[in-house]
Amino acid sequence: MPSSSSHAGPARLAVLLAFGSVYFFWGATYTAMSIGVHLLPAPILAGTRMLIGAALMLLFCKLRGKKIFYSRGVMARLGLLGVMLLFMGNVGLVWSEKYLASGLAALIVAIVPLYVAVIEAVTGGEQLRRRGLFGLFLGFLALIALLWPSFHEALLPRHGSSMQIIAAIIVLLGALSFASGSVLSRHMQLPVPPLVAAGWEMGAAGLANVVLATATWQWPHATWNWHSLAAIGYLILFGSLLGFSCYIWLIHHVPVAKVATYAYVNPVVAVILGVLVLHEHMQPTEYFGMVAVIASVALVTSSQMKSGKPAAAPAPVENEA
User: By its UniProt entry, which Pfam families does this protein fall under (predicted)?
Assistant: First the structure.
């Protein structure tokens, strides 16, 4: 695998542009989802985006001479990962943005690396050292700070609503599914190039979303206009295709520890865009939670494991977004 220290390393400008694309485009997907979900039911928004994105990504791989078809067993495992990562881990997130601020949803999703660390430890995988354990504790406090305003508002006699709490719980469950799928994908070690795997996983998730939308009679409730089409177009072009391609390029040209910084930057971008574009408001405790969750993710992902292996880059959380 090429590294940034190789003689023919990538140009500095290319690296900066790739980082900027991953930071901004993935952070902005939460804004696009918030706009789109108020016009299209969540499974339609997610399913349309993923089916089109899958077709384009697989076509791109085919044109570049990549093998895209594999054995039935490999395809079945890709389908399972797609359902866990991008269906169960995504459709609830999209739906939740009808009730949660996009920045808050992004901050909740940012705990995925913490979930991954816990799952690895519980299942006998790599164990976190003291710094990582402190990061997990800080992440727990961050979640309390982030979710407390929603719980407090729901308990008010006149203004209480349980929908924010339900939405937050669904995002947490979706993040757990995404983290579980990420751990499972590491152990599967499928002989499939990353872009090809992402294409088939998006296809499986898109199909599951379409089935859900049809079974729950969601299609008559879709509002197709330039706003909804622009949201889908952004998610396909900048979220899935360009953003993920830049991520894969960085993994092959830049040290993994630097690439992993997207997990800290994306939530901040989402919060800033939520305030500037969607006019969202955050409570002081939520800003504290933002700082705490970013610090906790940094502690966990940068922690050396007891086995002596360096922590891997977090799974690309945008694919949940």
Answer: EamA
Amino acid (one-letter) located at 316:
P
Nearest-5° angle of CA 197, CA 203, CA 206? 140
> In whole angstroms, what is the distance from residue 263 CA to residue 22 CA?
10
Per-residue pLDDT band for 6 (boundaries 50, 70, 90) equals: very low
| pTM to 2 decimal places | 0.87
φ, ψ of residue 320 in degrees (nearest 5):
-85, -25
- pLDDT for 204: 97
Task: Look at residue 157 in the predicted model and tell me its pLDDT.
Answer: 53
**Checking phi first, is residue 67 left (phi over 0); if not, alpha (psi -120 to 50) or beta?**
beta
| Residue 295 CB neighbours (<10 A) | 16
Q: Is 240 left (phi over 0), alpha (psi -120 to 50) or beta?
A: alpha
Contact 107, 288 (CB under 8 A): no
Torsion of CA 184, 121, 256, 294, to 10 degrees: 110
In one-letter notation, the amino acid at residue 279 is: H
Are residues 294 and 268 in contact, defined by beta-carbon separation less than 8 angstroms? yes
- Confidence check: pLDDT of 203 > 90: yes
Q: Alpha helix locations (H) across the chain? A: 12-37, 42-63, 72-82, 91-96, 102-109, 112-122, 130-154, 163-188, 194-215, 226-234, 243-253, 256-259, 262-276, 284-302
Kindly list the distances between the CA atom of residue 164 and the CA atoms of 3, 40, 108, 168, in Å, as whole numbers in the listed order.
44, 19, 13, 6
d(CA 181, CA 80): 9
* CB 120, CB 126: distance < 8 Å: yes
As beta bridge partners, residue 128 has 305
Cα–Cα distance for residue pair 37/46, rounded to 1 Å: 9
Strand partners, 135: none
d(CA 286, CA 103): 10
Burial of residue 200 (CB within 10 Å: 0-12, 13-18, 19+) is buried
pLDDT at 258: 80
